[in-house]
Specification:
disordered N terminus; alpha+beta; Dna Ligase, domain 1; Rossmann fold; 28% strand; disordered C terminus; globular; 11 helices; D-amino Acid Aminotransferase, Chain A, domain 1
Length: 413
């Protein structure tokens, strides 16, 4: 791969020799061109690599990769992987991750965001507001699903789709049933979703880079079209996001494992609802609407973050033979609510909890005196056989200990 054009970049007071590649099938596409332009302004000659031209090799104790038959020697990658090549693109990205190459978005994050059902499950579990949604596998479930999401009209969509494709609005039960039946017969996975009347024909796209929203726009549909996508000839305008909308967008990208994302938000009566999260957001519409240099913000983020690699903690800890991570969800064991952490385990042994998940944050090495709440999740590390036995015993013993614990203690947690 001649002409990588590796140049010295000044970033945060440090000289960084950064070899940057952009995974994209379309070097002439607006988003790819803008990233290349902004990289060049910063002294980088970004290499555009077609994801379909990689060869991946796995052998005993090592892995390797070639692009166009030559070694792929780069430090950082910005993936721009289209929906049509998701499976192959993610396979390439995971291979690069195993080689220690920094990636702006991970393969796992891309897969999670592109499955609308899976994304909704993760968002809802993390208390991020989403429209009410049901997964339908049989025509007989349609009426129940419509009732669950609040009645007609309803939005019907397939779990895999982009740029508004596979999204429909239906106003009668008969129309909804016929559409669902047709989609199921073609092998599609179908979602029935709540219709937000006050947000008809419009939504907000927030562009998240790192932990902040760098630009946002409101998209409006034309005519009778209810889908507001820019690629469907919708109009766009700059919008100043309220703080709660920014927080929802950033949290949605974070829990799905994305550093660069386009988060689509509906403006509901009670606040923002996260509709969808796009791992390869187009830059043209939002740069023109907002006037912001989003491509530059992405390149700046990449050059500042490549010195740090994220770690799959569970995978890392499992490299120790017999050791691993287990979690205990307090909601599954109501008798533990209000109990102090130290009372769960044998006082003669070390408490195996190294983190407690509470209110969208992690408490590392929590105090033994901390009292457990219904939504808490204990994260424990240790030798797995002993750890399972210790947690099992804690769950069995606490009902007896709870007899001596005033119920009012929970309110003091």
């Amino acid at each position: 791969m001649e002409g990588n054009g590796i140049k010295n970049v000044e970033t945060g007071g440090e000289n960084v020799d950064l070899r940057l590649a952009i995974l994209s099938r379309g070097p002439r596409l607006y988003s790819t061109r803008r990233l290349v332009e902004e990289a060049e302004k910063r002294g980088l000659n970004a290499y555009v690599a077609d994801p379909m031209k990689f060869s991946l090799f796995v052998a005993d104790g090592r892995i390797d990769v070639l692009h166009n038959g030559e070694p792929f020697n780069f430090d950082a990658v910005i993936p721009r992987i289209g929906h049509s090549i998701t499976k192959h693109g993610v396979a390439v990205l995971r291979h690069l991750e195993q080689l220690g190459i920094w990636t702006a978005n991970t393969g796992a994050g891309i897969l999670q965001s592109r499955d609308k059902l899976h994304a909704s499950q993760i968002l809802a579990r993390n208390r991020i507001p989403v429209p009410r949604t049901t997964y339908v596998r049989d025509i007989i479930d349609v009426e129940t699903a419509v009732d669950f999401v609040g009645g007609l009209p309803v939005v019907i969509k397939v779990t895999q789709g982009t740029q508004g494709q596979g999204v429909f609005l239906r106003h009668s039960l008969r129309e909804a049933g016929n559409l669902v039946q047709g989609l199921l017969l073609t092998g599609r996975a179908v979602l029935i979703q709540e219709y937000i009347a006050e947000s008809h024909g419009k939504d907000i796209r927030a562009l998240v880079v790192g932990d902040r929203v760098v630009a946002s726009m409101r998209r409006r549909a034309r005519g009778r079209e209810f889908r507001s996508n820019y690629h469907l000839n919708g109009t766009v305008e700059k919008v100043d996001l309220p703080r709660e909308y920014e927080e929802a967008a950033c949290r949605a990208a974070r829990v799905l494992g994305l550093h660069i994302a386009g988060v689509d938000l509906l403006e509901a009566k009670d606040g923002p609802l996260v509709l969808e999260v796009n791992s390869s957001p187009g830059l043209e519409g939002i740069e023109k609407a907002s006037g912001e240099n989003i491509a530059g913000a992405i390149i700046d983020y990449v050059t500042s973050e490549t010195a740090f690699s994220e770690v799959d903690l569970d995978q890392l800890l499992r490299t120790v033979p017999g050791a691993g991570v287990l979690s205990l969800q307090i909601r599954n064991h109501p008798s533990l609510v209000g109990q102090q952490l130290e009372h769960l385990f044998n006082s003669s042994s070390e408490i195996p909890v190294f983190a407690l998940s509470r209110d969208n944050s992690l408490l590392w090495n929590p105090s033994p005196e901390i009292q457990l709440r219904y939504e808490d999740v204990l994260i424990c590390y240790g030798e797995l056989t002993e750890l399972r036995a210790s947690l099992r015993q804690a769950v069995l013993d606490v009902p007896m200990k709870a007899l001596d614990t005033p119920a009012s203690e929970e309110s003091n947690a």
